[in-house]
């Protein structure tokens, strides 16, 4: 009887294939007037995968780095923030506020204007075509969770690969309404990314150019997330808990909030999810797994996730991932030799980006996999 009821419920529910076939994303579901969350999006109760509920009890104290300070002061702030929190806000970064707000507004408009529905449906594709994909990307779990739940995040994502070096961007597939604003934003962010890479390098004590020389820092992967308003926000996942695989990531966000970071207790005995409050005009930088390794654990790559905060307002964020451009099998990365001493031996073995991304895919794109490259026990 119970099995029959379960089967009936399953048949009545939207399957993943049916959901993708609508080509309308989560925004389309919301437009269809749903008042409850479909099973594909239902997160298990707190404690099933993670030790904590979606509601954070406190606000994270994210350090701020003011780029208009004298260089030595900025470097000191970057060093302290990258070591203690792995996240920092950057202010006085020189990117015009209108460049950031136009890009964020373009993503809002792409989803919110009734007239954009046809464009979104036409773009909908999990696979990248001409450097662009747009879809609700299923959550990738590791094989150790045989019945992953939820299957889908409450989120529609536009991914743009801008091309790097001499490869010209092929952006014909980019929605026309977003094209100029996103290109302009990307141009500005590549500049600020170069500056941040220099600061992070200098803050390791290896000179401003070292990271660039070692790996060529590339900021061509842009990921624009749209988190629609949700009728039952506490039941869904915006972005599952993860660390970024990048060297570092620069995030622009609107005022809604929903990003949380995992803050470990001082004694290492546990931790809690804490909210990251958006700071108007600031860009948020976080260290990724590759830089954690290259820094020989001087810098932290911190776990973060997104919860839904509103049943009224949609949230938009734009993440630009800065990665090593050197991605051949023969390009190996490990702790920089200047950071390896007798007192502080290399904590990781070397690996190529291909090997790193393969491990990450196999482990389900979530938790940091850098431990599998570790050669020194904590
Ligand atoms: O949307 C956000 O606030 C964070 C997104 C994120 O963590 C990511 O894309 O890696
Ligand atoms: Fe992230």
Automatic annotation (TrEMBL):
Keyword Phosphoprotein set for record: no
Any single Pfam family the record assigns to this protein: 2OG-FeII_Oxy
Domain Fe2OG dioxygenase, residue spans: 216-324
Keywords: Iron, Metal-binding, Oxidoreductase
A GO MF label: dioxygenase activity
Entry superkingdom: Eukaryota
InterPro entries to which the protein is assigned, alphabetical: DIOX_N (IPR026992), IPNS-like_FE2OG_OXY (IPR044861), IPNS-like_sf (IPR027443), Oxoglu/Fe-dep_dioxygenase_dom (IPR005123)
Entry annotated with the keyword Metal-binding: yes
Family membership: Belongs to the iron/ascorbate-dependent oxidoreductase family.
PANTHER family listed in its UniProt record: OS01G0536400 PROTEIN, OXIDOREDUCTASE, 2OG-FE II OXYGENASE FAMILY PROTEIN
Protein name: Fe2OG dioxygenase domain-containing protein
Species: Leersia perrieri
Taxonomic lineage from the root: Eukaryota, Viridiplantae, Streptophyta, Embryophyta, Tracheophyta
């Amino acid at each position: 009887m119970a099995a029959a009821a379960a089967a009936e419920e399953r048949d009545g529910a939207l399957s993943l294939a049916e959901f993708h076939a609508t080509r309308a994303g989560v925004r389309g579901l919301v437009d269809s007037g749903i008042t409850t969350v479909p099973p594909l999006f239902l997160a298990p109760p707190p404690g099933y995968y993670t030790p904590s509920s979606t509601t954070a009890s406190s606000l994270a104290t994210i350090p701020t780095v003011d780029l208009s300070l004298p260089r030595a002061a900025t470097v000191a702030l970057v060093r302290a923030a990258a070591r203690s929190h792995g996240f920092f806000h950057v202010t006085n970064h020189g990117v015009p506020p209108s460049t950031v707000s136009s890009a964020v507004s373009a993503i809002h408009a792409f989803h919110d204007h009734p007239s954009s529905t046809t464009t979104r449906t036409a773009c909908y594709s999990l696979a990248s075509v001409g450097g662009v994909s747009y879809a609700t990307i299923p959550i990738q779990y590791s094989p150790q969770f045989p019945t992953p739940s939820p299957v889908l995040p409450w989120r529609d994502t536009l991914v743009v690969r801008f091309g790097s070096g001499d490869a010209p961007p092929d952006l014909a597939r980019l929605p026309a309404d977003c094209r100029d604003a996103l290109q302009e934003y990307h141009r500005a962010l590549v500049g600020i990314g170069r500056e941040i890479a220099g600061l992070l390098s200098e803050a390791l004590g290896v000179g401003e150019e070292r990271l660039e020389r070692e790996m060529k820092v590339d900021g061509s992967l842009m990921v624009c997330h749209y988190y629609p308003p949700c009728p039952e926000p506490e039941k869904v996942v915006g972005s599952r808990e993860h660390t970024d695989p990048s060297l570092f990531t620069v995030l622009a966000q609107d005022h809604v909030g929903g990003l949380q970071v995992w803050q470990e207790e001082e004694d290492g005995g546990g931790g809690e999810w804490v909210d990251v409050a958006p700071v108007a005009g600031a860009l948020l930088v976080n260290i990724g797994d590759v830089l954690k390794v290259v820094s020989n654990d001087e810098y932290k790559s911190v776990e973060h996730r997104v919860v839904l905060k509103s049943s009224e307002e949609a949230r938009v964020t734009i993440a630009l991932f800065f990665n090593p451009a050197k991605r051949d099998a023969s390009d190996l990365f490990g702790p920089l030799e200047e950071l390896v001493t007798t007192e502080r031996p290399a904590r990781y073995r070397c690996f190529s980006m291909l090997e790193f991304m393969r491990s990450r895919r196999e482990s389900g794109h979530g938790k940091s996999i850098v431990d599998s490259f570790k050669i020194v026990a904590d």
